[in-house]
């Protein structure tokens, strides 16, 4: 599994980023550059796919990929996928279609909270329906318990709420393949059974721990996406999802979030530089993050329409995302402006 995920990342980055870029994408290093690459190369499903991956392991796996004839070296630090690698990846991908459901740039930090909220809500509702209010909660986190308490229906509405939840879960589970649906059901706790851990599921279903983790993440991201985008179809789950993460949640780094909040308050870039005492390059990183992840963020104040058109034309003509190549073609246009336009284009 690990080898194919690395091959997938190399194929997506296509020699335009170094092995460090591959490593940071797969182990989920939350930097401005990695978040940008995840969107720009349409590889958000690979972000944090291998959180324990280190440099030595990556280099060992890449050597094996070379020995297989699946990748070739472009330089000491860059690789691209060969036609043999493409064929091998396509064959493997047919067995793992759920991967493309994952959107870790958008939901990675929300998935655990959402699952804890859903788990505790289902457990609590099952117990109170049987007039059992003295049970050991599956999650002791105060924030989770507060969300669940706020969302619990009145006594007279509990059965109707349970029936509605059942229909929503059934609809969503029927959209999954059998392995993923089974995995999710076994992961959940109810009144008479505690849900299984990832390790226990791997043993019971006879899958690798990595595959179980990724399948489970794909299920959670699918549920979040459906619940948040279709509130009329999934009213109960929409309430839990929105209460867990907020409909406007965006995957900015913590520092970029502070900068974006100041922009929203009407401060200019110069004022933000003075207020936060950060470098201009750091501020530019934050603005690129906002361009990628905040749909309503406009880059018009930073890049003229003519410059945007010139950058898009160069990108289309040269068929590359390498900043140096684009900068050489665009002469007087700054790297910052190129990154803003590419970021906005990649998020569309």
UniProtKB/TrEMBL annotation:
Record-given protein name: Helicase Helix-turn-helix domain-containing protein
Segments forming a coiled coil: none
Stored SUPFAM superfamilies: Sigma3 and sigma4 domains of RNA polymerase sigma factors
Domain of life: Bacteria
Entries under InterPro entries matching the protein: Helicase_HTH, RNA_pol_sigma_r3/r4-like, YpbB-like
Domain Helicase Helix-turn-helix: residue ranges: 255-342
Protein's organism: Fictibacillus macauensis ZFHKF-1
Pfam short name (any one): HTH_40
């Amino acid at each position: 599994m690990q080898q194919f995920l690395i091959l997938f990342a190399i194929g997506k980055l296509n020699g335009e980023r170094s092995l460090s870029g591959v490593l940071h994408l797969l182990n989920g290093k939350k930097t401005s550059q990695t978040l940008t690459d995840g969107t720009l190369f349409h590889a958000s499903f690979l972000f944090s796919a291998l959180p324990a991956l280190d440099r030595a392991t990556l280099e060992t796996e890449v050597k094996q990929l070379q020995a297989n004839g699946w990748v070739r070296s472009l330089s000491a630090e860059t690789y691209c996928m060969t036609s043999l690698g493409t064929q091998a990846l396509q064959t493997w991908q047919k067995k793992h279609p759920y991967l493309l459901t994952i959107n870790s740039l958008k939901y990675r930090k929300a998935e655990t909270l959402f699952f804890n909220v859903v788990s505790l809500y289902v457990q609590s509702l099952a117990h109170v329906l049987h007039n059992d209010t003295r049970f050991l909660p599956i999650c002791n986190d105060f924030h989770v318990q507060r969300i669940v308490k706020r969302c619990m229906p009145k006594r007279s509405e509990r059965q109707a709420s349970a029936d509605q939840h059942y229909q929503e879960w059934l609809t969503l589970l029927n959209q999954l393949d059998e392995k993923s649906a089974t995995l999710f059901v076994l992961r959940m706790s109810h009144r008479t059974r505690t849900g299984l851990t990832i390790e226990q599921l791997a043993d019971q279903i006879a899958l690798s721990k990595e595959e179980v983790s990724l399948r489970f993440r794909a299920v959670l991201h699918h549920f979040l996406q459906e619940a948040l985008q279709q509130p009329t179809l999934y009213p109960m789950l929409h309430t839990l999802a929105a209460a867990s993460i907020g409909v406007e949640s965006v995957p900015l780094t913590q520092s970029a979030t502070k900068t974006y909040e100041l922009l929203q308050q009407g401060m200019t870039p110069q004022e933000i530089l003075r207020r936060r005492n950060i470098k201009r390059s750091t501020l530019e990183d934050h603005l690129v993050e906002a361009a990628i992840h905040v749909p309503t963020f406009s880059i018009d104040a930073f890049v003229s329409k003519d410059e945007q058109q010139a950058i898009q034309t160069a990108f289309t003509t040269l068929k590359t995302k390498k900043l140096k190549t684009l900068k050489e073609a665009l002469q007087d246009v700054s790297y910052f402006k190129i990154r803003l336009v590419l970021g906005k284009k990649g998020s569309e």
